[in-house]
Amino acid sequence: MREVFTQETKLTSPQEKVLKLVLTWLERQGFSEEDCQKAKDLWLGYLKNMDSSSDRAFENANLWAAAVLYLLGKQRGDQGLNLSYLALAFDVSTTRISVQGEKIAQTIKQGTRDSAVNLGKFKNFFPSEQAAKAFHELITYTQRSEQWMADLAMVFEEFMLQEPVPLSLDLLLELLLFATCDRRAAGDKSIIDLFLEENEAKAVFGDEELTFLRRLRASRFSLFQSEPLRQKDCPTFIDIFRGDKLSIDLDKDFPVPAGIMMGRVLPVTTGEDHCWQPGIYLYAIPPAGVDELEMTAKRWFWQYSVAHQGWATGEAFIRENGFRFCRWYRDRYPALR
Q1: Contact present, 143 and 295 (Cβ < 8 Å)
Q2: pTM across the whole model
Q3: What is the CATH number of domain 13-115?
Q4: Which of 35, 202, 317, 321 is 20 to 30 A from 304 in CA distance terms?
């Protein structure tokens, strides 16, 4: 069996027995390394956030293992890992598995809430009904060209149709922005670039709609490193992939967490000297998650670079791959889907 523990992970013998039981069972059943890692994350996430560390609570290793696998099945959308099957495999009752699984899920969910902070306000994304209608027109515009329809279909097939769990509304909106505002559909232009070129000179939209669409075009998805000092009453963040500094307008009473944030930001105005604000969400990533994401992102960047003849900038990479980070975050912190 591959190594499943790190030096930072200190488990008691009963806790270790549960984890080994889970991973051994998954490997014997032919599950992937990724599924084994997800199961491990579920168990360690529970242990990290539980109230008590008493070994007596883990005496029935079969029950705990079945509960972890039941949650893994729910996370994967795998109906094969159901209560009846697991009860038979581990010789425990379906009711006890369900109760124990709910206990694990609620403990992880509460711990995730405490460690991963959402600084954004999704409910404020559309400032008005007119802005929402303008965005609808942008999406409708993608259906007027076979090239854009094919590009959009490719994005949806890669990032949505293969998902075992349906995307939440906020992630679906982020996927649409990724496809229309970030990715380049024609040369160095995005779909929203082309859309605005055709409509800015016409009397189709009023000032409010045009301003919102221009803010969308200027929006960016990235990972941001927070700085301790404030500039013009806004916390300052470094865009890790682009290298520049942004002043992001957050609630002044909100304690800005140190470390790495991930999400989309929009300029407050369309002028040159402006603050930015969170778009759909802006999440603070816990330190353990940052280390894991760094290794994953390096692999993505290498694959992207190879696909582009060994040349790629950080900005081009995040522009064309931003939704991979969203998907990673959703899988890593399922309680915040």
Answers
A1: no
A2: 0.62
A3: 1.10.472.10
A4: 35
Q: How confident is the model at residue 58 (pLDDT cuts 50, 70, 90)?
A: confident
Model pLDDT, residue 25: 94
Spatial distance between the Cα atoms of 282 and 120, rounded to a whole number of angstroms: 5
Of residues 270 and 68, more confidence is placed in 68
Q: Where along the chain do its domains lie?
A: 13-115, 122-336
Which of 262, 247, 215, 286 is closest to 119 using CA atoms?
262
The backbone torsions φ and ψ at residue 54, rounded to the nearest 5 degrees and listed phi first, read -65, 130
**Cβ neighbours of residue 153 closer than 8 Å, sequence gap 6 or more:** none
Helix locations, 31-186, DSSP H = 33-49, 61-76, 83-90, 94-115, 129-141, 146-156, 169-177
The residues, ordered by sequence, that sit 6+ positions from 288 with a Cβ below 8 Å of its Cβ are none
Query: Is the confidence at residue 6, as pLDDT, over 70?
Result: no
Distance of alpha carbon 213 from alpha carbon 201, whole angstroms: 14
Residue 51 C-alpha from the chain's centroid: 27
Token duo for residue 17: 């027995």
Residues whose CB is less than 8 angstroms from the CB of residue 80 and which lie 6 or more positions away in sequence, other chains included: 73
The CA-atom distances, in angstroms, between 312 and each of 92, 190, 316 are: 53, 18, 7
Looking at every residue in the chain, the average pLDDT score rounds to 80
Which helix or strand (DSSP H or E) is residue 282 part of? strand 276-285
